[in-house]
Amino acid sequence: MTRSMISLLFIIRKNKALKNGQVPIYLRITSRKQSVEIAIGRRINPELWSSEAGGAKGNTKEARDVNDQITDVKNQLREIMRQMRDDGAELTPLSLKNRWLGISSDEKTILGIFQEHNDKVRQLVGKDFADGTRERYEVTYKHVHEFIRWKYKKEDLFLSDLNHAFITEMEFYLKTVRKCCHNSAIKYIKNFKKIVRIALANGWLRVDPFANYKMTLKKVDRGFLSEDELSAIQNKEFHCERLRQVRDIFLVGCMTGLAYSDLKKLSTDNLVKGDDGNLWIHVNRTKTDVPSHIPLLPLAAQIIDQYSTHPYCVSKNVLLPVASNQKLNAYLKEIGNLCGITKDLSSHIARHTFATTVTLNNDIPIESVSKMLGHSSINMTKTYARLLDKKVSNDMQKLFQKYSN
Fold first, then answer.
1. 227-393 fold
2. How many alpha carbons lie under 13 Å from residue 167 in its C-beta half-sphere?
3. pTM of the predicted structure, to 2 decimals
4. Most buried pick, 1, 29, 84, 371, via CB within 10 A?
């Protein structure tokens, strides 16, 4: 590896400022395919930092001390790189970081394995992984890294340091320091468990730290709209074009069960004429890549046809002018207020409404609903499905008649 393929950049992290306003200085080591960061153990007033120079500005004692330390770190790393080249060792940002921290190259570390995993996921986005999966693992890596700093005051740990206490303490950290709710904390820990499985499968870790550790998600009822609430939104007159568009997109979600990411990418290629002569939507779900085939109900077909000549749809070759998820949800809150709906409207509540109000409570079998939602098993569909009292009452009518006789 040539010298030019490794770059050293010193940066500051303003989001980690202390109460006195000082921020930590980090070293970012980068090559073509990898990037790692290390805290150099120095803080500085952000007003004294020059991003262009990658160091402190001015000639104060503090500035000179900071720049001397940065120079010293650079010299140390350059000497390590020279030694690694002379030894014929593989020179990567991670190997350079480990050598500087005194971590043996043949002993695996927690973050080292995690980073290798994330690098592979990043290269497989669009093939084996969705971009949302990449982002989820990168956020989990960040939480694990911050937890190690918080608990152990180190930048990384050997796999031999990974035990049951590490897992339970990380759950405590996520819930208290990071203020994660229970389900969010458990989901991050589940993501981390994949890294542990990799270590166990390769023989790098002998004892499973997750043994006797239970990861149970709390049941969350995200809610759905009733027939009356759905009609209220459908029949409401909006004088604002922005709200009309969001209402229409939301209604298509309620009539198809498609998630936000799937609605956003819909194009004419996803419209298929079925054997029954009706239009269907054929799409592979963005989240799971599972095929989802949905007959297009008249209301959804009418709305999609309405936007066929919309400038945004024409230029982007999409069926609907879907805004960012953040804006969509913000506007849905506004629509809910105008329609007198107290439920917290979001793009995902449309999916629950399709599963419950539109399909299951109109006697559509759960097997068909599961297929339309793009679920790999009916058990996944059951988390969306709630039977309304009206459906239970209709189902019980036969018994009323039997026992009244």
1. hpI Integrase; Chain A (1.10.443)
2. 21
3. 0.59
4. 29
- Strand-strand pairing, 55-56 and 271-273: unpaired
Q: What is the DSSP letter of 388?
A: -
Domain 107-220 - what CATH class? mainly alpha
Where do the H-state alpha helices sit in 2-158?
A: 61-87, 93-101, 110-123, 131-152
Q: Radius of gyration of the chain from Cα atoms?
A: 27
Q: What is the dihedral of CA 133, 135, 140, 145, to 10 degrees?
A: 140
Per-residue pLDDT of 172-216, as tens digits, reads 999 999 999 999 999 999 999 999 999 999 988 888 999 989 998
Q: What length is written for the chain?
A: 405
Per the structure block, which two tokens stand in for 361?
Answer: 């409570």
Q: Cβ-count burial of 387 within 10 angstroms (0-12 exposed, 13-18 middle, 19+ buried)? A: exposed
Pinpoint the residues of the chain covered by CATH 1.10.150.130. Answer: 107-220
Grouping H, G, I as helix, E, B as strand and the rest as coil, residue 310 is coil
Cβ contacts of 294 within 8 Å, gap of 6 or more = 256, 257, 258, 280, 281, 283, 372
Query: Is residue 154 helix, strand or coil?
Result: coil
Rounded to whole angstroms, the maximal C-alpha distance in the chain is 99
